[in-house]
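User: Hi! Is it possible to get a structure for several chains at once, not just one? Here's what I have:
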Amino acid sequence: MSIQLMQQAKQSELLLSGELSIYDVAELKSALSAALAASETVEINLSGVDDLDSAILQVLVAAKLQADRDGRQLRLTDQGEASKNTLELTGLTSFFDGPIEQSAQPSSPLQH
Amino acid sequence: MDLTQALQAFFAESDELLLQMEEALLVLEQQPSDATALNAVFRAAHTIKGSAGLFGLDRIVAFAHCAESLLDKLRHGELTFNPEIAATLLASCDRLKEMTAQAAEQGNDSTLADAPEHGELMRRLEQLAGIAHAVPMVASALLPVPIEVLDGETATSDCWLISIRVDPDILQHGLDPLSFIRYLSKLGQIMHVTTLTTHVPPLDALDPERCYLAYEIVFRSDADKAQIESAFEFMMEVATVRILPPHSLLDDYIRLIEALPEDNLMLGEILIASGVLTEQELAAGLAHQSMQQAAQQHEPLGQILVNEQGVPQPVVDAALAKQQQVRDRKAMENRFIRVDSLKLEHLINLVGELVIAGASANLAVRHGEKAGLQESMSVVLRLMEEIRDSALRLRMVEIGDTFQRFQRVVRDVSHELGKDIELDIQGGETELDKTVVEKINDPLLHLVRNAIDHGIEPVDVRLARGKPARAKLTLSAKHESGSILIQVSDDGGGLDRERILKRAIERGIARPDQALKDSDINNFIFEAGFSTAEAVTNLSGRGVGMDVVKKNITALRGSIDLDTKPGIGTTVRIRLPLTLAIIDGFMVGVGDASFVLPLDTVLECVDMNDQIFQRDSHTRYIHLRGETLPYLALSEFFGIEPQQGSRRSVVVVQYGDRKAGLVVDRLYGEYQTVIKPLGSLFQHLRGIAGSTILGNGTVGLIVDVPALVDLAMKRENADLDRQDARFAKVLATPPMSFVK
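Assistant: Yes, the chains can be modeled jointly so their relative placement is included. Here is the combined structure:
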């Protein structure tokens, strides 16, 4: 899997492609961390990703939670069919789209 | 697992609830449309049923359920509250009291339910509720079969609830929960998945090799439990998967919520959002749970009982209101805290010791004369006084609670005897020590029953006498000069003087030719054996007659007397000392000894002066600003050599409405006094109420002011004439009054 980071003003875009697996997660985590620190908006482009597994998913979740806490924007874009299905299956579609609906973290600020 | 502590808590909670239930029922009797009261009754029955269920007290559950059905109909307006319903529900309340008491004692409720009146009462409840079928609820609880009769309510949802909690290192085993969930979707229809992100750490702290996500899945399927379980077979070793079938008992959902590691309220909301429980179902379960949490102090009770098959328990009805109400109740329950009374005793003892230590420190500081130190000391003393008062106040309870309980008694006895009586309560907020309140209950009960029984006339007699048909019984309490005054007053026929006198003569307590005052005659009823012949009510076996009442009051160092007017009514007055372990005292000196008078009883201090000093042949009086007061010299009374040459003072004390003067040698002033009980050897000393340790380490005696006041009034003092001469010599300057 490859992670490409494109930064433009206050916006970052991470382009992920290939099959993401647990082995790539550590790399993804640092990339996300850095991106969030540097930008106000982070977009994660999943067009090149075949499917999401738990390892990747939770990093994305952690990143989103972090973004909310820091007042940043984090979005998933260009999800493929499989990724979309996984997100739907886990009920996380709206989690990444807008305000957190899951009452899992009641203290998280609601951001648009 | 030791359940006894939890059981005791259950009993305490139920006791309170049943009290509320009873009060609400009494309100409903007068105002049948009072919705708040009806809800209170329902809630009480409902909550008791729920927690009884957790302890496996099936009989109580069954019985409460019966009452609940009736209450439900009332709440929905299908029935209206009438006297028959009132009586039946009150009887049910009593029944529940007995059953919970037995459960607390024995840990089970088996025997009581076998009594014939139990079944009878249940049938009456069912009948009133319009339940026609003959199957008694009790029978189902007797079945030894583990899966219970579905007489209770279950969740309406027809979906399975699957809760997945994984070990963090599941990923390292090469397993991904997501793949199992995908596989699951082949067995049926996944209606909703909630991914719990509660355990996900901040991004920087996240360990990529650990799994932090958990899942709640709502699943519709025709598969059976075994098949669903097998979908997760390969993950079983590194995860916990809990499966609840469709239409599970509400209790099971609650237990599941408890077993899961996340916050219960949050889990509840998730279950609602995912559609497996309705808000009402959840609220019912949560209210239950908050009662449970208040009931146990250590481990969650739910853990003992968690069983995914569903332990046979009848269910919690889903009828309570929204979560907001649940939260309100939680907040209200947290206002009070249960404290072990031994701990409180210990605290009060410590405060006592502190007061003594403070007094001696103060003495030392005063002698040292260092200004700064004295100032600090006075701050310390002031704080100590406040702590003392607060600590003692912990033990104080309002007497109103005790008075309120008599509403039921008045109602029951008046119905029994066909009289119409209203109970009026005054001064319910008056506080007294908890132990005193407990001990005053029985005597008060007897007096109340007496008033209803003998004092208050039947309706026709009252009307004939021009009195209102509804009689009034008043219970009042107030603080009065260092003691608490409790009165039981009725507007009945008063005591029959002639009859009492006749009885007294019969019993040899009085002679026919004796000149007796009204108060003396009235006091005859306190003689032993006087009342038993009069008793018509079922007080036999309790061993309570007026003489026992008096004994009880005296044991509390109180006094009792009564006032009666034929045709008008009777008032019984009970005076009790505010039994505090630490009191504000006023220290005086007599000879070499020191005595303490309760500050509350001290009115003023006056110098002895021959102008005010007079006596007559039977008692001795002083004239103070036009008032005559009997007096008593402590030196004589206690047989102490009075100090020569000292300026004597008279301390004017008061008890109730009686005043007297006590002659002492020296006045020391206010003094915080820790009461130490007298040893058993000295219990019968007249005039001494206790002892204390003074700042200098010596023992001071606390004067029993009531006793001395009494004595001063009755003095026979032929042999004390000679003392007067000695006193006369000691008199000195013009009077100086130190008015309190």
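Chain B has a mean pLDDT of 76. The longest strand of chain B covers residues 471-480.

User: Great, thank you!
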